[in-house]
Amino acid sequence: MTYREAVREGLREALRSDPRVFLMGEDVGKYGGPYACSKGFLDEFGPDRIRDTPLSENTFVGAGIGAALGGLRPIVEVMTVNFSLLALDQIVNNAATIRHMSGGQFGIPLVVRMATGAGRQVAAQHSHSLEGWFAHIPGITVLTPATIPDAKGMLLAALQQPDPVFIFEHAYLYPTEGELDEQAGAVDIRHAIVRRAGTDMSIITFGGSVWKALAAADQLATDGIEADVIDLRVLRPLDMATILASVSKTHRAVIVDEGWRTGSFAAEISARIVEGGFYELDGPVQRVCSAEVPIPYPKHLEDAALPNVDRIVQAVRSLVSP
Amino acid sequence: MKEQPATDSRIPPRSRALDLLRQMIRIRRFEEKAAELYSAGKIRGFLHLYIGEEAIAVGAMQALRPEDAIVATYREHGHALARGTPMGPLMAELYGKANGCSRGRGGSMHFFDASRRFYGGLAIVGGGLAIAVGLALADQLRKRPSVTACFFGEGAVAEGAFHESMNLAALWKLPVLFICENNLYAMGTALVRSESMTDIAAKAAAYGIPGEAVDGMDVLAVEAAAKRATERVRAGGGPSLLECKTYRFRAHSMYDPELYRSKTEVEEWKTHGPIVSFEGRMREWKCLTSEDLSAIEAAVRAEIDEAVAFAERGEWEPLEELTKDVYTANVNSET
Ligand SMILES: Cc1ncc(C[n+]2csc(CCOP(=O)(O)OP(=O)(O)O)c2C)c(N)n1
Fold it and tell me: Which helix (H) or strand (E) holds B178?
């Protein structure tokens, strides 16, 4: 099954099992979902629960917050992370604050999904990776499913949370294929996971870059360098224990992040490794991030702007010689 | 869309009239006390007083039932009081004490009261409108007969959120009553200096929403208009908008030197303020005596004294609880 189908399975299961769940966003209904994640849902669940919204990001995210306050379990789809900027007021000022500001009286069990990331030649206004920005905000949970089980299971887990959860689905992943157990359900959304075990290097990443890191690790293995590949899965709350355990074993770390290097989430992880594991390190922490440019349209420039397998391999090699 | 003449409202029974007057006085005195406590350094931060606008909260609240929801702005003391939140927790919230209505976390701009479906106290201009749309959506989907009343200033109509929310509420026929408190100024910017078209009720019409302008200084007119509008909303007519024409007698906040309007303009508005004019009319109807007034004032004074004592007695939230209620318990809120 594809990642897209896993998301769809998750949505369908959520809609079937809880009448309070509804989906709203631009083109989720008639069109079938901009990424076809809700294809057929309008017929299956009807227009009350599959709601096409106007192009009003701030207000439909705000309406999701209000609906959550009113006892529903809204899933709001924002077409692309770039457009979520129009909804930042509601996200930062209301979704993330109301529980605290109301002294715990009101919670917002809201799930917001959005497509993120580059690699499809759709240029600078449709390609950015801003999940690291969202992870800056206390009061929300930030998830980055990289695998098929996570694509479904994180959504189901998010719906069990009493607080707002943001799920960033890398647009590049939708057509990727993988296995999904028929029984697969909600997954743990508190912990990172070691996707590949090694002893020489910790490659720490999340989202779409997980697959690049795994490919890099395979390549490095042929030279005798064995890397741990950590899929962070959850950017907030961050599971530092898994990172530090890995660094204590390998003594070296490369962080791969499709966001820009300056002020990136990779910078945060780097700082935390230094704070919590400085004496474990045998060399400087390295980062592989996107070039400091708005993502360009031409393929060769876009490729050059993004982290890729070669750059990850090089970064690792600069720290370990085989 | 026409202005509702005050004479339209019929003479209420004496007990009801006294109650409306008492509620307005209660808000007025509460805020005068707040201003005094602010000067004394007991209350800090932004303090936006509602003085002059009391007829709107009190009038509109008469049309609402316990199951209805309320979304208000940072100028919400009057709304919370009119909704029935006891004065003690509100005063304690101004102090920032843990016995405040929001555990002291919000202060003047962020009153919350779950037991009365009072959803803020929201300080981003226009932001509350979207929340109101969502609350109304929840009520509609759950087939609850509630109305969400959303108060906002006329400054908010310039925000995209206003237009997005009107559109969505009308499109989905949601049970929302939008109540614009048009006090003519957004901080120091007069409506005529910020809007190309200043008829707010007409803006609602552009979205197919029934809009009505009413004298926001007349508690009975506001009450009557709010009842008409909520009945329409409750009957499934979709959203309605009420524009209440009013004026704030005080500065925008305690920081405002009020350079944008003249003293004479303020004084002129005060002559037909909501309390003084309602008192006058009650006297004409022979349903208000000086004894009534002093009884109201004495009761309010006692209530305020008790509220201040409640706030003074309140504890500061322990520092260990700084990160409480960022997430629900059991989630690590450190990261
Ligand atoms: C989005 C946003 N922009 C600016 C402000 C700063 N601000 C606070 S109150 C205010 C004036 C709002 O006027 P109005 O909506 O008419 O309400 P009033 O204060 O008159 O009750 C401004 C500009 C804000 N709180 N939110």
Answer: strand B176-182
Query: Whose CA is closest to A207, among A160, A252, A171?
Result: A171
ipTM for the complex shown:
0.89
- Name the residue of chain B whose CA is nearest to A136's CA: B335
Q: Determine the 3-state secondary structure of A100 from DSSP.
A: helix
- A110-132: buried (b, 16+ CB within 10 Å) or exposed (e) per residue? bbbbbbbbbbeeeeeebbbbbbb
For residues A286 and A247, the answer to whether their CB atoms sit within 8 Å is: no
Start-to-end C-alpha separation, chain A: 38
The pTM for the full model equals 0.93
Probe site for chain B from A72, A101, A242 (most B CB atoms < 10 A): A101
Residues of chain B with C-beta less than 8 angstroms from the C-beta of A103: 100-106, 112, 325
Which residue of the set A57, A77, A131, A302 is catalytic? A57
Contact partners, residue A241, CB within 8 Å, separation at least 6? none
Closest CA to B276 of B323, B214, B218: B218
Which pair of tokens denotes residue A153?
A: 């299971």
A126 is catalytic: yes
User: Residue B334 has what pLDDT?
Assistant: 43
User: Is the peptide bond prior to B121 cis by the omega test (within 30 degrees of 0)?
Assistant: yes
Name the residue type at position B207.
Y
Give residues 1 to 40 of A whose Cβ lies within 8 Å of B.
Answer: 22
What distance, in Å, lies between the first and last C-alpha atoms of chain B?
52
**Residue A168: which of A193, A140, A196 has the closest Cα?**
A140
Tens digits of residue pLDDT in A74-121: 999 999 999 999 999 999 999 999 999 999 999 999 999 999 999 999
* Buried/exposed B163-189: b ≥16 CB within 10 Å, e otherwise: bbbbbbbbbbebbbbbbbbbbbbbeee
In sequence order, the β-bridge partners of residue A75 are: A23, A111
